[in-house]
Amino acid sequence: xxxxxxRDGTAVARSDGSTHELFPVAAxxxxxEALGGxxxxxxxxxxxxxGLGYGFSTLHICExxxxxxxxxxxxxxxxxxxxxxxxxxxxxxxxxxGVSGMVEHHAEASEIALPRFLDEGRRFDLAFVDGNHRFDGxxxxxxxxxxxxxxxxxxxxxxYQLPAVARAASFGVTNLGWTREEVSGADDLHQWAVLRxxxxxxxxxxxxxxxF
Length: 212
What we know:
Layout: H1 2-8, E1 10-12, E2 19-21, H2 29-41, E3 46-50, H3 56-67, E4 74-78, H4 89-97, E5 103-106, H5 110-119, E6 124-129, H6 135-148, E7 149-157, H7 163-175, E8 179-183, E9 193-196
Parallel strand pairs: 3-4, 3-6, 4-5, 6-7
Antiparallel strand pairs: 1-2, 7-9, 8-9
């Protein structure tokens, strides 16, 4: 399915017959391979994604989970626009690839779902961040995902070339002890960065702040 989508570049939504140009909205092949590789190397069993879209990144994440060989591995995807903006294409592709059973989709905004997941005590090994690209949206996603992802877990950010995304990420590095594990080469459409959350408890003073 990954190869077919990359080759064709377009797809027809089964839900309403609309034709969709997958790129450049969908992640590049290089980013998808990098994402799947991180899932596999981290031996992730629980992953979460903000922004299902056309499901290209989701397919790579599922591939990485399947490489681990754990039949209980599951992925959570948040996308309130799946049925409207994307014609349910992401969910359609997951079904056609035979991995829809391992994906839990929530058609709601991340600022609503992520705090609830935190309250429910859910935990993830890796998160892919590709939702709201404004600073406040990315910042909220990273703050909540930083708490939902296990200590020493991975936050994989798409569109790191955008100032708002890079700026939000820098807060985690300067104030929360996160580390940059990888930053891809310059790309006007889909640069990515990989952050690892801190493995030590947060012991900052109540007035701690480092400019970022």
